[in-house]
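Q: Is it fine to ask for two folds in a single conversation?
A: Yes, each is treated on its own. Send the first.
Q: Here.
A: Result:
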Amino acid sequence: MRAIVEPARAIGHLLLVPLLACGDNLHVHPPACAANPFDPLRYETLLSNGPGLTEADARHACQLRGEDLAIFSDQQELDAAAPMSITPAWIDGRLDVGIDAWLAASGCAAYLPWEIGFPLPPVRDRESCTVLDGAHRLANTSCADLAYDGQPLTAFCEVPYTGTCEAAGALTFTVQTDRIGNGRAACAAAGGHLLRIDSTAELAAASQLAMASGVLTFWLDATFADNAWSSPEGCPSILPWAGGQPDLTEPPRCVIYDLTINGAQTVRCDSVATAVICEAN
């Protein structure tokens, strides 16, 4: 993968594609991607220090940060989020020629109000993917391209939004400073889970709770192993990385939020004990 330089802080919606029989033909009716309430903390742009990023490289770069290529679920999200991108940028949306539909990687139908004249038909056997152009309009090009309109392609990333994991519960501070495994167990015993950040407001509330409790760092519920981020419940957390982060050497890696630098950073899961904030289920 090409090296990624420091991002300019700016994925997915998990739904299955149902197959419906109609007469003698089999038709696919992909569901729309779940509505995603806009929060600027969920998005970021990643740049390349080379000639640009292919769609696959862009997606992988997002995923290494606990994100994926951005999906727009409606015009409101498009209008709010697109200006945060550094364009031209890859977003989630790939032509499935078998059903002649544009789908996100998870199989849902992304909201893609195309610029006039788009989408263009794919060139020969080259796959076609979606980009935000320099005017934040939607266009398509070969997924293997590194540039669009003569400009290097970037990655516009978004923290995956499931529609089921994001209901924030009440936050409680557990007095102990502990390792992440013990912290997760303590939260589970109390009927909750380790803190996952779902919004700017929740990050502010957790930070205030930590400072009121006299601590400056606390765990976030995310672990990097096997080249992917995960949590015990399968729910993503916003990971508002500090500069130079994440450091993914020597996995598994876990995440703490550090109020002295106002950002998240990775640590070895078994080498650090820090504050535990639990969130009600």
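Q: Second one now.
A: Result:
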Amino acid sequence: MRRIKMTIAVVAALSAVAAFAAVSASAKTVLCNEAKTTCPSSLIEPSGTAVVGVINTTEFPKTSFNLIGPSYSIRCTKGAVGAVTTAEAGNPLQATGGAYLYSCANLYNKEEACTASSAEVPVAIYPSGEGKGTLKMGTASKHMSFTYSCPVMKESCTFGVSEVPVKYGFEKTDVYLETGSVSLTREGGTALECGSSALLVFKALWLGGGFPSEAAYTVLCKVNQTPCSEANTLPAGSYLPGVINPAIEGTNFSLKMSGGLTIACSAGLFGAKSLAVEDSPLAAQAEALFLGKNCTVAKQACSYATASQPPASIAGTGSGNGTVTFGTSKEHQSFTVTCNFFGNEFTCTYGSAAAQFNLEAANQLLTAKEQSLALESSSGPGAVLCTSGATLNASAYLAEPRYAISS
């Protein structure tokens, strides 16, 4: 257990902290631009992505659609099957879809042209690894059904089932959306005209729309819980800050300039505020990043030290740990110090597009270790002391025990 000497200064610092939170990452199903088991955030397809398979027995001989019953065997030589996602991620990923069929005929009478159609139904998408997965089309309340009609029929026939599993099948360089033999039950038409059951078999060439995969979505969580329950998941606007204070053993902040001088700061706050409930990684904004008049260089007092507040991101990395990354390519995380080195006043600003702090669960610390920063500006009579780079090392204490959870 870390030893903390509570002083008035510490109490004041902790009072300024609005909330603390654990980082939790829960795996959710997504569509990925590449066939991967785990999809990086840069490859996740957005909501509204269409997974499409085409049936054209002339151009793609392996494709087919067959609805086989006791009185009719309906074969469609052209059509499409697929679904459009209604979210970016989910467990499972939700979509709506169906089959669109034409050029159909009754194989028991090849001269007899028929029509066939399917209902639009809810679709649930599940990954099974390496880009493979299943589209489960239909639900208990909204069956996946197919209706067909032929000229000599007195009425149309409808067959359906609560769920049609459509799998991704990989064959060399091609990918197919296909079923095995799926048993359907009559849902419309008479037994005399239609019979009581039918078998559905189809295979469509996948044209695109992403592969079922998993992505880790990060949330801020109150406790060390995998996955984080809804009750413990914190809303957007929650904080993950750290405290640097001489009364808290082991906390520190330093910028070691490449010329050899080190700027050391004994007190301050830094952290991030979440901008969403969950994301991959969790979007955030740097908050409470300041060091004040608590820094020295070669035991000479610095008049002020501060930090910018750029966009940030929070990601769970497993085993209760996580990362908080400050800065982007457009908005760097920068630290500005104004010091006086034996009569030579200087102001240096050092920054990085990705200053990374680790959330160490066992020690309840936010730490930055040997983070390289580049000189972004310098001024003052002693500006020559602002060398081209600096190394950031920092350690801040989480005022309440919190953990980063990855699942």
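Q: Anything structural to flag on that second result?
A: Two points. The two ends are 26 Å apart (CA to CA). Residues 46-209 form one domain.
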